[in-house]
Fold these 2 entries.
Entry 1:
Amino acid sequence: MGVAANKIVMKSITLLGSTGSIGTQTLDIVADHPDKFRIVGLAAGRNIELLSNQIRAFKPESVAIADPSQLDTLRGAIADVVPQPILVTGEAGIVEVAAYGDAQAVVTGIVGCAGLLPTIAAIKAGKEIALANKETLIAGGPVVLPLVAKHGVKLLPADSEHSAIFQCLQGVPEGGLKRIILTASGGAFRDWPVERLAEVTVADALKHPNWSMGRKITVDSATLMNKGLEVIEAHYLFGVDYDHIDIVIHPQSIIHSLIEVQDTSVLAQLGWPDMRLPLLYALSWPERIATNWEPLDLVKSGDLTFRQPNHEKYPCMQLAYAAGRAGGCLPAVLNAANEQAVALFLEEKIAFLEIPKVIEMACDRFSSQNTAQPTLEDILGADQWARNAVLEISESSPKTVSLSL
Ligand code: MG
């Protein structure tokens, strides 16, 4: 197995988060190209039915299930599968699968900061990372980047915007990049007046106009925190300072992002909004694999429009720039506070407009204890601190806004 003469002969892949949106789309790609990719390991949360179907179809050597109480059910569901995969459970099990065997690449499709430790384990095992979990880099950037350099592994972006930037950068010489322009769809409420945001329900927030994604990221798109997090992700991935990363609203989601190079030339990557393309490129780089996907038709896609992001309507963007500029553990605090706030919103315990408020309060409270060069322990500690802080803030604050739920 391996890459010969710069062509993909057969790439072995481990997939973390196999039953989620990223995971199922990655497996569609693997199923379409059985001559190019094979699955070595799978890790999932608790969807036994889907996971057992995946085990049957892709015959992984090693499988982790996050919820240990489901192990016997899983064992029963795949009793007739030959050969039987090694089954492991819990966080430690996911870490084990991430580092397991001869997988060359690990696709990190686990949602949230839970992806950090498995990704670190994969890097230490010398695996290439197809980064579909942005939180890993946002929270763990100060620890993950030196590890990537130390182990000489490739970190290939699978987020659509960062894949676009990465694609535009192919052939741009060192020092040629001047500015990054991230495009944002504007999320579920882009056409709502700011006054109506107080009435937003969970169902409203889960209706994304262009992309089909998991629940957490769809809410992040509605608050535009997703774009703010992507600014931090772009900073870590491409080494560009925050003054040279801009956001523009592009409702059609056809241009997935752009770069400006030193001579002011602007390069863009275009396509239908379909996560499979950035996932495929992260797995096939530097090759281009032929697909039967619908080609982009510029006449059919119609007018491409752009507008300035409204920072009053979407305060999460500015919170993310501020946390990114502060550096150290603050991006981890921002990220964890956001994860906790979104979870509370999805449980209907806080209102939509309280999401940025509780995040801002958590970041403010933390800032005096921030450290410039955090260790992994500092980052994990800050993550836990921020989750507790958001729970405490949401329990102690008067539920003036929540009454409208
Ligand atoms: Mg994205």
Note: DSSP finds 16 helices and twelve strands in the chain.
Entry 2:
Amino acid sequence: MTKHIFVTGGVVSSLGKGITAASLAMLLKHRGYRVAMQKLDPYINVDPGTMSPYQHGEVYVTDDGAETDLDLGHYERFAGVVCSQASNYTTGRIYSNVITREREGGYLGGTVQVIPHITDEIKKAVASLDSPDNDITITEIGGTAGDIESLPFLEAIRQFYHGAGANNSLFIHLTLVPYIKAAGEMKTKPSQQSVGILRNIGIVPDILICRTEKPMQDEHFAKLALFCNVNKEFVIEERDVENSIYEVPIELARQEVDLKILNQLHLEPRELDITDWENMVARIINHEKSVVTIAVVGKYISLRDAYKSIYEALDHAGINNDSKINILMIEAEELEAAEGCELISKADGILVPGGFGDRGIPGKLKAIKYARENNIPFLGICLGMQCAVIEFARNVLGCEDANSTEFDENSAYPVIDLMHSQKNVTNKGGTMRLGAYPCALSPDTNAAEAYDNASDISERHRHRFEFNNDYREAIEGKGLKIVGTSPDGKLVEMVELTGHPWFVACQFHPEFKSRPLKPHPLFNNFIKAALKK
Ligand code: GLN
């Protein structure tokens, strides 16, 4: 039988619910349990695919092609949990299911209401990961206790808990215990009030995890226990970590949260061995041996979350190469406006990430030209690969007008063009080429070498445009080789520049599959090349 853990948040947003939930999953998995994870998001978009990264951070893509919240990236990175379409439900998706059923006459003349129809649909989503292969599902509820939008979700998990029973389900509330400088004190009142809001709607947290800047004293634990109605041993401190988010599970394990959860859920404790994880964190802390500077030239640079998985993947490769990654976040438009390339001249490697729309394209092309001409290791991802092809066509083939039809429908040299399958697509939601597809690699290339000379790989995608095959011969003829394609050879998945130390670009998004204990091969070899520079 699958047991359920629900994680809610209080006081303020951005407390790191996703990292906390993922850390718990990592610990439970290291104790030998099979864990699934999901996030319930209160906004009305059916998925975050249509949202600007400025609104929502990066869109994380699963193997099965779901466009999801970036917290799912934490779930996969920390816990190696495989996420899917069932791992992210929004208010929009829940309502859309209910309304579709209503139009089909599925409610047999009934009046369709938030309770019970919307809450039943939410409960169905929570139960959708139940299976004999899954011991525990961790469900994170987006938003903050007290938000109007999260109410139906909170009511649904209250009902779910009521039905499943206290031995089979558990509420964790993540809260903030702020330090007030003027008073020189830590304050528990916001947490008391936040738990009060939950109690009002019938949810009594079993475990309180407190985000703090400073160490909590015994009096804080006692006060929180008494006023939040939680056993004192179930009040957990989650203090800001010093070096890396990957320290969080170690800190939670020190306080045996995982053990307390298992006791509460009547599951046997089993042994915990996180030596691999501790060794990885030790490598982060001690890796001051070398520093490698990577310029990431993008268009959503001011928001760190917009390129979350890219930055994480760079860090993973850094850990594996015992180097600290110094990321230069370069706004493409600033590079475009600058006279020379001073902004990226300190870079040991240049990365151009994915994106949509024409803002910042000239800056990205300028960075790629600089990398190509100065033998700087380069990794282009999705739009980054498309830009590498455009730059090459313009500056090496001499086709000044070369472009993607995403930016210029009338380009005389449309080296990047809309995929055939996308030609009549009008609906913008979930209609791109999404998720895992196979790619065949050419031998004796930097691309294949990164993957240990594998001939077939699988990577995740999110794009509408592709390399225009009409230009293959001309582009390859001048040295930008196609080194990865779909198995039928028709769709270009990877290109690589000959005569350059390491210039590789891919149509897919390798960053989504990088893990702290298993860096992605392309990021790993990109960093290796940058270290050699
Ligand atoms: N805008 C490009 C496309 O749709 C690239 C997408 C991306 O970088 N994810 O093909």
Note: The chain has 18 helices and 23 strands.
